[in-house]
Structure formats: C-alpha cells, structure tokens
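Reviewers asked in the last cycle whether our approach scales beyond single polypeptides. To address this, we selected a multi-component target totalling 562 residues and predicted its structure end to end. The input consisted of the following lines:
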Amino acid sequence: MADISVKIAGLEMKNPVMTASGTFGYGLEFADLVNLEEIGGIIVKGTTLNPREGNDYPRMAETPHGMLNCVGLQNKGVDYFCRNIYPQIKDIRTNMIVNVSGSCPEDYAECAARINELENIPAIELNISCPNVRQGGMAFGVTTEGASQVVKAVREAYNKTLIVKLSPNVTSIADIARSVEDSGADAVSLINTLMGMSIDIERRKPRLSIKTGGLSGPAIRPVAVRCVYQVAHAVKIPVIGLGGIMNAEDAIEFFMAGASAIELGTANFIDPAISVKVAEGIDSWLDRHGCKSLNEIVGVVE
Amino acid sequence: MKYCKDLKIVAAEYPSDGYVLLRLTDNEPLGEILGGQFVEIRVDGTADTFLRRPISVNYVDRKNNELHLLIQIVGDGTKQLSSLKAGDKLNVLFPLGNGFTQGKSGEKVLLVGGGVGIAPLLEYGKQLREAGATPVFLLGGRSKRNLLMLDRYSEIGEVYVTTEDGSLGEKGFVTQHSCLKTLCEAGSDIRISVCGPKPMMVAVARFAKANNIRCEVSLENMMACGLGACLCCVEKTVKGNVCVCKEGPVFNINDLTWQI
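The resulting structure, written as structure tokens, was:
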C-alpha cells in the first residue's frame, strides 16, 4: 500500500483521482454503480449564476477514440444548486467540488461567493475554457489578460481552494497558467476539451447543432500530457491533469509529466466505476514498482 | 437499482437477415426491469466504437433469468455485437430510463411499433398482460422481413400488421390500418404507446391528438452516459431540455414540443 493521498492547497484527498465536471453529474447518478466515498474528489456539473438551457440537440458525436460534445453548460443556476442539490450531496464523504462558469467576471465572482457559503464544498474549479458557449467561457481562457481578470475577481470573492481549468485551444498554455498563478489560483487543471468538428457526409451537415464542439477521450491524451508537462514546468502551484485517461497506466503518464492529481472524464461513460478502479490501479502500480508514495513519480520526466 | 456487469451470452440467434437476438443471463436474478427501459452495452474493439450502445429490452424471461436484446445490425458497433457467440461475456449497464406507463387492470393499450422499434413492445405487452390489462399490437415494417418474431407477440395479444410493400398484413403505414377505426372510435377507452422511427411516431402522435387519445412515445436520441450525467441526449420539452436517457426514453406527447 503506497501513500496515494494528495494535498492541493487546502484540499486533502484520500487518493489523486477526481471525476471531471460534466461527466459524473452530481455523483448521485452513479451511486448504484460505484462507492462515491472511494473517489478522491467529485467535480460536479458546470454551474452558472443564472440558469442555462444549453445548446440544441444534437449535442454529441462519436469520433475515433473519443467524442465531441456541445452541451453548452446546461444547468439550473447556482441558487438551485445551493437549495436543491447541495443538501443531497453535502454528507457524501469525499471532496465535492463545484465547477463554476460565467459570461463576465462579475457573474463568476457572484457564483463563487454563493458557493463559498457552503460548508462542505472545499474547493471550486473555475471553468475559463468551455468551448461551447459563444459569450464567455473560453473567451476568458484564451488570453492572459482575460484569464487574469476572471481569476482576480473570483479570488476576492472566494477564500477556499481555487482550481482554474485551462483550455488547450491557445498558443501557449504555459503563459495562461502563469497569469492564472499570478492572479491567485491555488491550482490549475488541464486540459479542457479541444475544439473540433465532424461532418455527416451523407447529409452534408455538421453532426453537432452549433457545428463545433469539444473533443474528449483517449484521442486527445498525448495533447493533454504535453500541456501538463509544459504547465508543470511553468508554475509552482499544483497541476491536475486530465484528457483521455482510461486506466491507471494512463494516469501514471500524467503524474510523470508533472500532475499531482488527475481527473477522469469521458471514461466514466464507458465504465461508471472507472474512478475507483484507477485509484486502486495507481496504488498497485506504485507497489509493483517499489514506490512508497505517489510523490516519488510526480514530475520525474525532466 | 442499476447494475454494470458482465452478462453471459446463452445464445445468439438470427431471426432474419440483418438482425441478431442476444439472450443473456447472470448468476444472480436480473432484478426489476420495466417494459420500455433500455440497457447500454459496451462494445470494445475498434476506434469507432468508443461509447456504449443503447439497446432496448426486448424480453425478460423470468423463468430462465434471461434478458433478450433484439438488435438491428446498422453500424460498426451492432456489427460487432452480431459476431458474439454463446459463452461470450457482454458488459451491460442496466436497467436505464423510465419505461412505459405501467398497466392497470382492465385497461386496453394499443402498442404501435415500427421496424426494430417493435422490440421493446414485447416485454411491455407481457407486463401489461401480467397487470391484467389488454395489449393490442399494431406493428409496421418496410416488408415482411423487417417484422420479426410475430408469433411471440400473438401469444400476448391481438396483432395487426402493415407493410409498405404489402408482403404481410395491410399495405401502407400503421396510421392507415383499418383496425384503428374500430379500436379508437369515439368513446373507446384506449391509450397508445409507440416506438419506432420518428416520422412514424409523429404520425401516430398526430392521430392520437386528433382523436383525443392518451399517447406516449419512446425516443432514441443519441446518447453517451445513459445515466443523466452528460446531458448530451436532451429533448426539448415543456419543462425545457431534459435527458432522454433518464427522464425518458418514454414521454407523453403533450410534454414534447413536436409540431403535431
């Protein structure tokens, strides 16, 4: 039994595996299928200040080794979350983390401020990288100024662990990470989906309602590993890696690139219990390789 | 209670060209499964069959603890499923979705199916019978070879058939069948459950609305998780966008925003 517990700023996790926002609902949807308390952290659906209906159907297309989605941050708003969802999840003994999104810095800050009041939510993940909403989302994540502006606004309103989720759809993800660190983020998570597109050649039409969407799944994993490696070398704050992780070996690759923890996203759709299996797999990989703790391999690739 | 586990294939049968019927079993009892619910099957192997495949529950054989899935072979995923053999394992996430409205003793329900959409009506018809209701089937297909295992349906209730080429039953679409006139005449107490291609379901919904008959339809929007988590399979309803995999796949036509 290696030590696989992780501390990211104020966030203490029994293992380094979290479920990625938008792929695991509020955890409750998976309660029959996996022991939620054995997961290091559950990052719940993207939440915005006001309710959002999201984009029109079709919102997904299967692509080689992955999928495109353009859900568009459908959610019932932060007040609904605080009133109706929080009471159902607050006693689950794992880290319940809320992914926060918005269309202007003030909305992000107000949404974060309301979640700050919830005792059993130890962290938020700030989404400045959603490729599927026209106004906001990724718009902030693609420039150092935009990213900094949102993070500073939220930092003033939020005093627990602040994770910022980065977009790979940029020229230099390391530059964005540095500006986010300078603006007060406690950690960064990356990568959000890659912008993609798929066309139904018989109908001569895009397969998604808004034409483009975010690509996820193992197809994007090498891009994610590269981004994690670059960011880990650019900042001092912890890096959380995600992008196409399907098993423990994939996760180990991210740790070696410099990630302190990982998120599983699309993999939850293939195997609803994958998060616990990956946590166990990391432990046994470390045992097999004579490592006493996860720290021994984090960032070993220079 | 939902499960995600490897079920064992008892037999793979081929009722007609382009279809496979998988009979699956487990060491433990299969648990409650409602007519109209579905499963998501993991198909491993190629780059293009990454996500699970949603398949409706065709029949639950309680005596032999078997789950039957009737699958039309249309793409890479279903092609792989058609090559499975007795003894193989299949990873199945089940049961998913809400299912059709449960039957009440004494009521009459018209079950309208088109193509492979007739599959879930078999189990639903059986459950209606068990509840003391009377199921009547109206099944349509392009031709005779698209309408499978009709004898199974006859064991449960009356069966009316249409084919577009006239090779079996009345020629035309289900909405043109002569039985509708008598079954749905004014004052008759009947409701309708439909599963099939969308144009057919819209036509039946239009007929039901015009005749003031309660009607529910089973949708098959493209989906990923099957659990209401990814929000990919949404349908526009009077309550906004809702997940077909969780709030559906069965919807009352009055809750949808279809132009009917």
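The interface with chain B takes residues 22-25, 29-30, 32-33, 45, 53-54, 56-67, 69, 71, 74, 217-218, 266, 268-273 of chain A (CB under 8 Å). We regard this as preliminary and will revisit it once experimental data from Aim 1 are available.
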